UniProtKB/TrEMBL annotation:
This is non-reducing end alpha-L-arabinofuranosidase. GO terms for biological process: L-arabinose metabolic process; polysaccharide catabolic process. It catalyses: Hydrolysis of terminal non-reducing alpha-L-arabinofuranoside residues in alpha-L-arabinosides. Residues 1-21 form the signal peptide. The lineage of its organism: Bacteria, Pseudomonadati, Pseudomonadota, Betaproteobacteria, Burkholderiales. Homohexamer; trimer of dimers. Its EC number is 3.2.1.55. Belongs to the glycosyl hydrolase 51 family. Pfam families: Alpha-L-AF_C, ASD1_dom. InterPro entries: Alpha-L-AF_C, ASD1_cat, GH, Glyco_hydro_b.
Length: 516
């Protein structure tokens, strides 16, 4: 249409009260080119001795009036089982580099009380130790990720902890484990040598850490069938040198390198931004900052590809999530924050990024599971609420161990506020272990729904069915007074007579559907 005709047509449309329907976003899913398996451990959790993340939040002790199994709260464990937690990282975090495992075995009343110097300076009773942690993962049906102490520990201490947990011999340490109630070796899926060695773990350089790691790893001995994957503690969003140096130096001695990246609305650690009652500029800055995970993974992967093109090493994002200013009136060392629809969108955007890098990103742990940072569950004494992030994990369960599929988006508009802009739609697709095709869609725009036309060459689409998580407010969240304020709702859409299916994704929403 020439410009004059187009102008006349536009005037006619306006005069008749007509509107121009925006072209839908087109999502193409290439089912003929399956990618890597999305390791279930990408949906891993993190439980640190921090605030009420363990004590009160999950652990109440076997003598508590709160219904519990072996000291672990039945309500919290039950809810976590519903999101099929595949893996739990413990005991830290920064706490790990001051944790001495012998403090946490044997009769609980005889264990030493320490000070948790990293987190609030509170007493650490050591009531939760190795055996209690394995009770938790057993109850959850999850695997264990144990983080060793490099900062204030030693090669000997880590070596002996691994022997204590995994030896099936008659050694004194293995017998000590038996005396403490566990006959068979524990299954330790992953063992990390230190945490954030660039910071709270000892302020080291990558080269210095790499030498220490080599020394420690030499002495981490376990029977073949019980040998954990050993993880080198890597870098953060400011520095790819760790992935570079460690993948070069430790190629033959490690299963992977960790990486940490936290999403902060303002991007500044001193004033991070509030968890609720934020304006749209902090909605978009949070989502824009979280989308940087993509380039962080790309940069770290590129560094690792130089030394490990076969991708034998994993990039383990073993801490990620939102980090806000703590809630007023709470202990600043406890990192307690509310959790809103914005957090669910953050989680879903990250899942979609992790799926796209499933060949390298084979494990992640959101920080953290209960009451700390971007938590699944918040507790107040006997009460418990499920957060929007919890529901994002629940909706994405079909992606655990699914086969990733390439997706491409055409005609995907930008959503912008001021000079910040991000793509409106994020998408991911995978073939589930049940054989079904699953699609996840996120609309980052809090003001406009978006039409997404599905294009799946070679597959006739009849309908999609699943769930949607959305709400009227950007900061919709559950409270102890209103625990059901936000939760997923059923979602379905049917193909038209022409066999085409367009999904109307509500504003600020996460959708996961199976394609029929
Ligand atoms: O998750 C909270 C803390 O953040 C962890 O202990 C530490 O590793 C990171 O700095």
């Amino acid at each position: 249409m020439n410009p004059i005709k187009r102008g006349v047509f536009a005037l006619c449309m306006l005069a008749s009260g007509g509107v121009f329907a925006a072209d839908p976003v087109s999502l193409t899913i290439d089912t003929a080119k399956p990618g890597a398996i999305i390791n279930k451990d990408v949906y891993g959790q993190f439980a640190e001795h921090l605030g009420t993340g363990i004590y009160e939040g999950i652990w109440v002790g076997p003598k508590s009036k709160t219904p519990n199994t072996k000291g672990w709260r039945n309500d919290v464990v039950g809810a976590l089982k519903d999101i099929k937690v595949p893996l739990v990282r413990w005991p830290g975090g920064c706490f790990a580099d001051e944790y001495h495992w012998r403090d946490g075995i044997g009769p609980r009343e005889k264990r030493p009380v320490k000070v948790n110097t990293n987190w609030g300076g509170v007493d650490e009773s050591n009531a939760v130790g190795t055996h209690e942690f394995f009770d938790l993962v057993d109850l959850l049906g999850a695997d264990a990720y144990v983080n060793g102490n490099l900062g204030t520990g030693s090669a000997q201490e880590m070596s002996e902890w691994v022997e204590y947990m995994t030896s099936d011999s008659k050694s004194t340490l293995a017998n000590m484990r038996r005396k403490n109630g566990r006959d068979k070796p524990f299954k330790v899926a992953y063992f990390a040598v230190g945490n954030e060695a660039w910071g709270c773990g000892g302020n080291m350089s990558p080269q210095y850490y790499s030498d220490l790691y080599k020394q420690v790893e030499t002495f981490l001995r376990a029977p073949k069938q019980y040998r954990p994957k050993i993880i080198a503690s890597g870098g953060n969003d400011n520095d790819v040198a760790w992935s570079d140096v460690l993948s070069k130096e430790l190629k033959k001695q490690t299963d992977g390198i960790s990486f940490h990246y936290y999403t902060i609305p303002t991007g500044k650690w001193d004033v991070k931004g509030a968890s609720t009652s934020f304006q749209e500029n902090e909605w978009i800055s949070t989502l824009s900052n979280t989308l940087r995970m993509e380039s962080h993974i790309q940069k770290n992967t590129a560094a690792m590809d130089k030394h490990d093109p076969e991708k034998k090493l994993g990039l383990f994002v073993d801490e990620w999530g939102t980090w806000y200013d703590v809630e007023k009136g709470t202990n600043p060392g406890f990192l307690f924050q509310q959790n809103t629809l914005r957090d669910a969108v953050v989680a879903a955007l990250n899942f979609n990024i992790f799926h796209a890098h499933a060949d390298r990103v084979r494990m992640t742990n959101i920080a953290q599971m209960v009451n700390v940072l971007q938590a699944m569950i918040l507790t107040d004494k006997d009460k418990m609420i499920l957060t929007p992030t919890y529901y994002a994990y629940q909706m994405y369960v079909p992606f655990q161990n699914a086969t990733s599929l390439p997706v491409s988006l055409q005609n995907n508009p930008d959503y912008s506020v001021g000079n910040v802009k991000i793509p409106e739609i994020s998408a991911s697709a995978a073939r589930g272990t049940d054989g079904k095709l699953y699609v996840a869609l996120v609309n980052t725009n809090p003001n406009q729904p978006a039409d997404v036309a599905l294009n799946i060459p070679g597959q006739a689409v009849k309908a999609v069915k699943g769930r949607v998580l959305t709400a009227a407010a950007m900061d919709a969240h559950n409270t102890f007074a209103a625990p059901q304020a936000i939760k997923p709702a059923p979602f379905s859409a049917a193909a038209g007579a022409d066999g085409k299916l367009t999904v109307k994704v509500p504003a600020k929403a996460v959708i996961v559907v199976a394609v029929e």
